[in-house]
TrEMBL record:
GO terms for molecular function: hydrolase activity. Belongs to the Nudix hydrolase family. Keywords: Hydrolase. SUPFAM superfamilies: Nudix (SSF55811). InterPro entries: Nudix_hydrolase, NUDIX_hydrolase-like_dom_sf, NUDIX_hydrolase_CS, NUDIX_hydrolase_dom. This is Nudix hydrolase domain-containing protein. Residues 3-136 form the Nudix hydrolase domain.
């Protein structure tokens, strides 16, 4: 096991109604299979967090990040693969057809836009990810509220 954590960039994509975008990871995924997740992934060698954030949004949805609204939080966790990760998450707005994301084939199977009252669906995978995605969503909505959105 590497002593240094893997770095992850995460995007909480926000729509005009103040909802956040979530996608379900495919059952074939090694890490957190069949769970709801935000957009994001590991930084590639030499890549900044901002570069990774923009690349992951494009790869996972087909959308382009138009503005990074605010940081949401920093999260550290150990995946079920035994590797430590440090995740930096941000609220973002995107350009593109928000009703038709281009989900990565084989990686994600469905998507939902959730408001602050819709987060119970994220509890489906509480045992798998220790409720982390729900906590990230709650943090995201708190930041969104503080921004007056």
């Amino acid at each position: 096991m590497s002593p240094d954590p893997l770095f992850v960039a995460g995007a909480l994509v926000v729509d005009d109604d103040g909802r956040i975008f979530f996608q379900r990871r495919s059952p074939a995924r090694k890490l957190f299979p069949n769970t709801w997740d935000i957009v994001g992934g590991h930084l590639e060698p030499g890549e900044t967090v901002d570069e990774a954030l923009r690349r992951e949004v494009l790869e996972e949805t087909g959308w382009q990040v138009s503005v990074v609204l605010a940081p949401v939080g920093e999260y550290t966790y150990t995946g079920d693969d035994g590797l430590d990760r440090h995740e930096s998450d941000f609220l973002v707005r995107v350009d593109g057809d928000l009703s038709r994301p281009r989900l990565e084939v084989g990686k994600h199977t469905e998507f939902r836009w959730l408001g602050p009252g819709d987060l119970a669906v994220l509890d489906e995978s509480r045992e798998i990810n220790d409720g982390m995605i729900r906590r990230i969503a709650e943090d995201g909505f708190a930041v969104l509220h503080n921004l007056g959105m």
